[in-house]
Amino acid sequence: MSGIPSHLILDPLAPIPPSLGKKARMRLSELREAYQASMSERFQGMNLGSPEEVAILVAPIIAPLRVESLIVISMNSRNRPLGPPTIVSRGDTDGTDVPIRAVLRTVLVMEGMQFIIAHNHPTGDPSSSPADRAVTTRLAEAGKAIDCPLRDHIIIGSNGRFVSLRRDNPELWR
Questions:
Q1: What are the residues facing 75 on neighbouring strands?
Q2: DSSP assignments along 65-134, one per residue
Q3: Average pLDDT score over residue span 35-60
C-alpha cells in the first residue's frame, strides 16, 4: 500500500509521521478519503438490530487500530445508521477517555434518535473492564436524560471476538 502503514489509513485521527514525504502525505490523504467514502457506502441502508451485525460492520474499522479508539454510530428510530461511525476518542494501548458530551454532541449533530458505541481492545481480549461498564452506565443515563438512548456498547477484540455489554450486562441500562 505505497509504503504507508494501514493503521494510518484506517484511523483518520492518527498523527501523520513527520518522516512521510510530501507525496506520501498526499497519497495518505487520498487513501483516507477513499476509505471514509467506502465506509459511508457500507453503512447505507444497514439495519443494526443485533450485536453481531454491529460487530461485523465495525470490526474492520477499529480492530486493526494500535490504540484504543471509541466510535459512535448515530441511528434513526429504525436502527439504521445516519452515516459512518465517528471516532470520538483515541487513547493508548490499554484505555481511552470517553468524553460524554462529545459522544452526545456527535449523535445530536447527526440528528440521531439513538446510538451505539463501540471500541477496540488492542490486546485482542474483548472482555469488559470496570471502566468500560462505568462509562456505559454514564452514557445510558445521559442518553435517557435527552431521550436519545444508548442501544449497546460493543467491544471488539481479535479474530472476530466481541462483547455486547447490553447482552452481557443488561443491569447497566437500568
A1: 81, 114
A2: -SS-EEEEEEE-TTS-BSSS-EEEEE-BTTB----HHHHHHHHHHTT-SEEEEEEE-TTS--PPPHHHHH
A3: 83
